[in-house]
Design brief:
6-stranded mixed sheet, 5-stranded mixed sheet, alpha+beta, 15% helix
């Protein structure tokens, strides 16, 4: 997490730096520190017997990384990739993983105080541990994701699928 401080009316306030993106018409965000790069959609090699949300693997500068479709991971129907489709390459713990998203929007800086906890029903639901909070952006809500939890859920599902 960034340690930026902003002085607002004499109060020091910690800022969150987030990369915003879209999946299925909804806005999401992750901490900028976890994003290594954002790339156009490369050729993805399919893996046999992989769960539906695993698009396959790619070679990224000599390293093979898995590509996870956030659209599929969130249970949304598949759509054709277009010129806005991107792979967000992220460092999650010790792993490098690519997440396919519909579009990447921008990097924003918002005060930590604007991050509201997810509603209890969402937080208690199965597989919703990856939602760390919500930011009200006026006309829309922005869902902030915890990439470590998102990957952990994917790995657990994959292991269950392979068993």
């Amino acid at each position: 997490m960034a340690n930026d401080l902003q002085i607002v009316a004499g109060n020091a306030q910690q800022l969150l730096q987030l990369v915003t993106f879209h999946v299925g018409g909804e806005g999401f965000a992750v901490e900028v520190a976890s994003v290594r790069e954002i790339m156009r959609l490369p050729v993805i090699t399919s893996l046999p017997n992989a769960p539906a949300y695993v698009d396959g693997i790619i070679n990224l500068r000599g390293g093979v990384i898995p590509i996870i479709s956030l659209r599929e991971r969130f249970g949304l129907s598949a759509v054709e990739n277009d010129s806005h489709t991107r792979i967000m390459v992220m460092t999650v713990g010790e792993k490098v993983v690519g997440f396919r998203v519909d579009a990447v929007s921008e990097v924003i800086r918002v005060p930590q105080a604007q991050l509201q906890p997810p509603p209890p029903l969402v937080a208690a639901g199965g597989g919703r541990q990856c939602v760390t909070g919500v930011i009200d952006r006026g006309e829309r809500l922005l869902i902030v994701l915890d990439t470590e939890q998102l990957l952990l859920l994917s790995e657990l599902d994959w292991e269950a699928h392979a068993a």
